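re: ur question from yesterday

yeah so i grabbed the chain u mentioned. its 73 aa long if i counted rite. heres the sequnce exactly as i have it in my notes:
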Amino acid sequence: MRWWTRSQRIRTLTEIPIEAAILDANATPVYQQIAEKALHLNQLGLSNEAIARHMGVDGKTVAKALNWALGRY
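ran it thru and got these structure tokens back, copy pasting raw so excuse formatting
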């Protein structure tokens, strides 16, 4: 019987090169960027979903923006 041997050594995690892009950690979150306009549209009577469609974001983002604008967040 012949013994099996590896042709290449096993690479450990520290030997695998990894590259990652570092995003701007100081960027303002989207919900804070849209808070003023979302509040204005909400005061005009639009629903969160209508505001979300108009602004191109998710309804949860609008809800978070409104809570932040009203000081509930």
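noticed a couple things. The chain has a mean pLDDT of 88. also Residues 28-73 form one domain.
anyway ttyl
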